[in-house]
Amino acid sequence: MGDYGIKVTNPGYDISSTEPRDYIINSAYGTVKNALTGSGTVTVPASSSVTVTIAHGLSFIPLCLFYTELSSGSGKYFLGAVRLTTPDADAGNIYVNNSLDGDGNPINTYVDATNLVISYRNVAGSDEDIDYFYVIFGDSGS
Amino acid sequence: MADDYGIKISKEGYDVKTTSVENLIMTSVYNLLKTKLVGTYDGVGTVAHGLSYTPIYISRTKGGTLERMSFNSNASIDSTNLNLEGLLIKKYYIFYQQAI
Amino acid sequence: MGDYGIKVMKEGYSINDTDIRNILLSSKYNMLKYHIDTTGNLTVTAGNTSGSINFAHSLGYIPIFLAYVQHSWVESVERELPFGRSPQPLIETAYADSTNVTCRVNMTAQPADKTFVFRVIIFKDKIL
Question: Which of B45, C98, C109, C118 is deepest in the core (most CB within 10 A)?
Answer without folding.
Answer: C118
